[in-house]
Each structure stands twice: as structure tokens, then as C-alpha cells.
Specification:
single chain, about 160 residues, alpha+beta, Cytidine Deaminase, domain 2, 6 strands
Length: about 160
């Protein structure tokens, strides 16, 4: 039996079209790119997470010569939020990047490990997480749930 999955998302020509609170999150995520430790890939990623208490936490990628010992920006931000604000739910996650690893005009999208971590946070809180992905050319895609990025998540 053949089945079909439909994924809904919103697309913006530029992240400046987002609501003001998400514009602030994108700006903070870009500032986190500057602090990334990416000496091997030279691909700097920044991420911000909006929590239910209004707190915005941020992270960036942290590479290590003993690959894969490093962490992606999304997981750094989520793990910090989980460790420091365990009772707060995650409302929104923003991901931005700079570098040649992904073409300038292509969608920047979280890796499989980050998608699974985000999905587990969504399942744990029984509430969708909004995902804002900003490509290097400013094009922005917004998903209303991690499930749209990982329809067959492990454990779902």
C-alpha cells in the first residue's frame, strides 16, 4: 500500500519578514556564529532557543579534532536549555550559518542527530517546537513542528 506524507512550511525571502521576537533570535544566532569553534570545517553555525518563560538561550557549533567529539549548535543550545531550565518547554529554535560547507543559496537544515534530539524535546514536552531555518542568502523556512523535519523519528 502506497502512502504519502505532506509537509507544511512557510517560506520567506528574507528573515527580516519574521515577527520581531524571531528577528531578535536570528540576530543573536548570527552573533553566536562569530563565537563558534570551527577550525576544521570553517562552517560557523549559531542557534537560539526560545523557552516558555521568555528566556532565549544560544549555542554554536563546537568542533574537535577527534571527530565526532564536537557538537552542533542546535544541540549545544538545547542541552544548555535542558540543563539550566529543565521545567521550561522549548517554543522555537532558530538555526543560522556562515561558510562554504553548504552552498550560499541552499536551505540550511539540521543534521539527523540534531533532528532526533529536537524531536525528543518535542515528544518530552508534548508540544510542537517551531523551527526557523535561515539560509546564508537570507531565505528563511519555518516549520511548525520537528515532525515535519523527521516524520519517522526514532521512538515516535
Amino acid at each position: 500500500m502506497e502512502k504519502e506524507i505532506t509537509i507544511k512550511y512557510n517560506e520567506f525571502l528574507n528573515w527580516s519578514e519574521l515577527p520581531s521576537n524571531e528577528i531578535s533570535m536570528v540576530e543573536k544566532a548570527y552573533s553566536m556564529c562569530e563565537k563558534a569553534h570551527a577550525p576544521y570545517s570553517n562552517f560557523q553555525v549559531g542557534s537560539t532557543v526560545l523557552l516558555s518563560n521568555g528566556e532565549i538561550v544560544a549555542g554554536n557549533n563546537q568542533e574537535n579534532i577527534a571527530y565526532p567529539s564536537g557538537l552542533c549548535a542546535e544541540r549545544v543550545a538545547l542541552f544548555f536549555a535542558g540543563a539550566n531550565f529543565p521545567k521550561e518547554s522549548v517554543e522555537t529554535i532558530v538555526v543560522v550559518a556562515k561558510g562554504d560547507l553548504v552552498p550560499f543559496d541552499k536551505l540550511l537544515s539540521p543534521c539527523g542527530s540534531c533532528r532526533q534530539v529536537m524531536m525528543e524535546y518535542e515528544m518530552k514536552q508534548s508540544k510542537s517546537i517551531r523551527v526557523v531555518l535561515v539560509s546564508q542568502n537570507g531565505k528563511t523556512v519555518v516549520f511548525n513542528s520537528i515532525l515535519d523535519l523527521l516524520p519517522f523519528a526514532f521512538g515516535n
